[in-house]
Structures are given as structure tokens and as C-alpha cells.
Amino acid sequence: MEFAKKAYFFTLDLLQTILLAASIFLVIYIFLFRPFQVSGDSMYPTFKNGEYILTNLIAVRIDGIQRGDVIVFQAPPNHEKDFIKRVIGLPGDTIELKHGFVYINGKQLNESAYLNSSIRTYGGAFLKDNEPYTIPPGNYFVMGDNRPFSSDSREWGLLPAHMIIGKSFFVYWPLSHMRLIHNPFPPALQK
User: Fold this and answer.
1) What is the pLDDT of residues 87-112, one digit of tens each?
2) CATH of the domain at 122
């Protein structure tokens, strides 16, 4: 009788602990942070295929989106997939691609912090070379760091703000590549 009573209370305590842990996990997963796996090479060398990153879901609502942020979002060409790209153009910016470089509001964007100097950025189906485009409110222009191999805003167009899931901030796997993700632009260029 005593053993059955102890087993009952032990099982009850165990179930309460499991439910509490699951509740905490769900709150964190739904409202705060979410893991994503990098699939493909569109952000190489910043991110490698198979790396796992943590994405902050509330930073978008608190801090907003700045130029240079790495974000995860529902892919405009296929809402079932998530993409990871870098924010290049903000609402109200005029973006232009010419001579293989990105120009924002008439000034060449210095991307040397994350792009090799030999990389050139050319237009696509949506944004063609030498055709300035002003980004309307509530939209962003995003590109992968591996420009020749990235499906991004140059091809499929603008990213509506409501499709943004969050800002990526930490690579946690593999352990040998663990690191924080920083915005490479100085504060004056982020806005």
C-alpha cells in the first residue's frame, strides 16, 4: 500500500514537471525564439548549408528591421518554405543595381563586411540593372550574400513586412561554428 502511494505521487510529480517544461518550451518557441536550419548556399560564406540558427521572434516588433539585419521569412515564391536573407532596402529607399554594385538612394552601398570584393550584384526578373526602384511602405528588399546563387528580391520582388518571422542572432550548430550574428553596418547606415 505504501509503495503504491509513493509510486502514485512520484508519477504525479513527474507529469507536472513534464507539463511545466513543455509549457515553457511552447511559450519560448511560439513567442520568443525559434530554431531554423540553413538549407542551401544562398547566404554562403556567412552561413553554411546545414548550420542551425536561433531567430528572435519579438525583435522585429520591438526594434524593427534595419538594413543589414539577417532575417527569416516565409518565402514569397512558396509560403510553405522559409528563407534566410539580408535586408538591403528599407521602405522609402530607392534601390538600383549598376556596374555590379548596389546603390541605395544614389549612394553605393559598402558591402565589404560580408561580401568578397570580387562579387558583383546583377539584376533579375524583378529588379533589372540600371533601373532605380523605390520601395513602397511595408515592404523590404532582401538579398542573399552569395549573390550569383541566391533566389531573392531581384527575382521574385519585394518582401512584405507581414511575412517576416524574425531576426537571426545566433548560430548554435555545429558547435565548432557557434557565433553571434551581428549587423555589419554602422548605425547611421542601418536606417
Assistant:
1) 999 999 999 999 999 999 999 999 99
2) 2.10.109.10
Give the three-state DSSP class for 15: helix
3 φ/ψ angles, rounded to the nearest 5 degrees: -65, -45
Does residue 16 lie within any of the structural domains? no
* Average pLDDT, rounded, for the chain: 89
* Helix residue ranges, H only, the chain: 2-27, 59-63, 153-156, 187-190
pLDDT, tens digit, 9 for 90 and up, residues 147-166: 999 999 999 999 999 999 99
| Owning domain of residue 156 | 34-190
The residues assigned a catalytic role are: 42, 85
User: pLDDT tens for residues 165-190?
Assistant: 999 999 989 889 899 898 998 777 77
Considering the domain boundaries, does residue 45 fall inside one?
yes
Res. 16: pLDDT tops 80: yes
Amino acid at 37: Q
CA–CA separation, 43 and 28 (whole Å): 26
Q: Distances in Å between the alpha carbon of 64 and those of 22, 70, 75, 140? A: 29, 12, 19, 12
124 in Cβ contact with 157 (< 8 Å):
no
Sheet holding 107-108, edge to edge: 107-108, 101-104, 94-98, 133-134
SS3 116: coil
CA dist., res. 121 & res. 88, Å (int): 12
